[in-house]
Design brief:
By secondary structure, the protein is an all-alpha fold. 69% of the residues lie in helices and 0% in strands.
């Protein structure tokens, strides 16, 4: 049996790098930035914990915040096509910064997940 992607990529440090790179895009995009609090510290931490858990790491996100319920957590925000696309641009740019750390299969799996997730969050 293969080890979880979390272990394959080196654990938490990888996800911190990915999320930090993603938030560079968030901070520079007016549509996205308006959806986040002024201080991004907790938002970054929550995303790191969620991604680590999703990809087979420790269940810290679930222990601290409960079930992810992504659609419910994002419901207060109007996520239209423009916001979805901006999020995908930022996440794909972040993923591209860590691409050399991933096999082709890992990169494609992560990219496909983010694409699916972004489309599911659209609520307008």
């Amino acid at each position: 049996m293969d080890s979880p992607l979390y272990e394959q990529v080196g654990g938490e440090p990888f996800f911190i790098r990915l999320v930090d790179a993603f938030y560079v895009g968030v901070e520079s995009d007016g549509v996205l930035r308006a959806m986040y609090p002024d201080d991004l510290t907790e938002s970054k931490r929550h995303l790191v914990l969620f991604l680590m858990q999703y990809w087979g790491g420790p269940p810290t996100y679930m222990q601290e915040r409960g079930h992810p319920r992504l659609r419910m957590r994002h419901a207060p925000f109007l996520i239209d096509k423009r916001a979805r696309d901006a999020w995908l641009v930022a996440m794909n740019a972040g993923l591209d910064t860590v691409r050399e750390e991933l096999s082709k299969e890992q990169y494609e799996e992560m990219r496909a997940y983010f694409d699916m997730a972004a489309h599911q969050m659209r609520n307008v």
